[in-house]
Structure formats: structure tokens, C-alpha cells
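Appendix B. Chain record.
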Amino acid sequence: MTRLVLLVQKFKVSQQLPATLLLSALSCGVAWSQASITKATIFKQIDQGSSLGFVVKIEGSNLTTLENPRVLLLPSTGITQQDPPTYSATSITMAFTAVSSYVPVEVTLSYSTGPVPKAVSGTECAPEVDVRKSYQVEPENQVAKKYGHGVSKNFDVVQISIVNTCPVAVLVPLAGIALLDDTTVPLQPFSLSHVTSIFSNDRTFSGPRAIFFNAVQATATLGSAIEPFFGSGFTQAVSILGGGFTQGAGTVWKDLSAEQLQNLTAQSFQATEQISASGGSLQKSVFFPRTAKKANTAITNWLTASRTKGSPVPLPPLTLQVIPVLTAAAK
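C-alpha cells predicted for this chain:
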């Protein structure tokens, strides 16, 4: 009888053991696969007027082991659009659009087992520290040689040099550059297309070379029309003016417009410039319009103060917006 009881007890223990081991394994598995967020970073994109584009990057471990979670941003008020997130086990990125005054505070990954929250940190790039900027006003005589007479007389040209030491690429929009003057409103640089139109007008109509050769051509055309009323000497003079004289003048006063236009296109700041991360650089020129072909007061005062011996080097009267960038597809 005693042996029978012992056999029954052993059987019960053997039945309970697999269940105990299974529960232990499941509990270990849940603990091992629990999602953990180490950092949540927000990156700003290009300003779209009343709204602003963002990308949130969530870094951690086991983020998608059990399921792909929903990404919730707090506060939710002000968010106008959220794109589908891009998932990996250690990183989740999502682009979204919000009002320009939106300030994110927290990001939460919503799982069926419960939420995993994390306070949002700022962008990994501090533009005022990690993006180095310097400015150089180009002398008018050099501007005339590089970009033509029309550009030199109508614009103050400032060369901007930028070195990006941020771990992410940055965008610098032309609309985010301004010349500051205490006496006037901030002055924005003109776009390349606008500067090119001034260049073309000077080359074909209002510039000194255009005026000279247009006058010579007009005189030769008029002389050809009235030469029947004069002698043969007049006819020869008209022929020389329209032929040899014009060609000789063109040899002395060469047309450099093709090279100048190429310089203008290659060296001008575009609508938006992107500078690569970790040491990327940019050196291009912006064009501030003059009033009555006189240099802007802010630039004149800056140059005067910079050349004064014994005085500290003044800050340039320029502002430049730098926007850190991360694409939603980045891992």
C-alpha cells in the first residue's frame, strides 16, 4: 500500500513540473523582450509657413520584439499630420507636421501590454555651437570682374563660409538669411533668378559695354540708310564703322558674360543649401540689393569698424537660420 502511495505522489510531481518550467520560461521571456527607450530626439525640418515639419527618432532595445507599437506624441494638440513610422528593433523614426509653435514634451510607444513613455530631448545639433559661420564682403572691383558690372553696381555681395560639425546634415534656406540694420527693417538677399535678370539687362541694354556697342551698331545702321545722299568716302566710313572698327573694339573690350554667368550660377546661394554632417562645408555668395546703387549702411559701418585699429572685431550684421535635418527613413 505504501509503495502505491509513493508512486501516485511521484506521478503528480511529474505532471506539475512541466507547467512550472513553462511558466518560468514565459516570465523570463516577457522580461527579456520588454521594450526599453534610451533616447527620443526631435529634429526640425524646413519651415512650411504656418506649419513646421518634424522627425522624431526613438532609440532603444526590443522596440519591435512583440509587435510594432503606435507612436504617440504629447502634447497631441497642434499636430496636423503623422506619417507611417519606420520600424527596427533598435530604432523607430516618424515624420510629422505641426503648427510652427509646437513644442514636443514626451513620446510614448503604445503596446498591447501597456505604454512605454520617454521624455523628448532636443535636437542632437546645436546650430549656434556646432555650425561655424564666417562672412566676407567682396570688394566691388572683384565683383565686377567675377559677376559683371550690373551686379557690382546693384548689389552688396557677401561670401558666406559654413562648416557643419553636427552629427546630422543641416539645411540653410536663403529666406533665413537677413542683413540687420538699426535704421531699417531686415534686408533679405535676392534670389539667383532675380540677380541673373539684372545681369542680363546690364549685358544687353544698360551696361557700359552694351551701350557702346549698341550705339556703334545703331550708327552704322543709320549711316547705311543715308549713305546714298553722300559721297563714296562716307560709304567707306560706314563700312569701316560697322566692320573693322566693331571687330577691333570687340577684341579690346572682350565679352566675358559667358564666364561671368557661369560664376554667378556656380557661386550663388541657392534657395536651400544642404550641408553634410560631421565636417561638411559650404562657401557661396549672397546678394543684398543696394538703394540708388549705394552700399548698404549696415555693411559700410561693419567694414569701417572692422578696419579700425585697436578696436574689437564687431559681429557681422547678418543672421542665418540653420535647420538640423534627419530623413524619416534613416535608421
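Further analysis of this model is presented in Appendix C.
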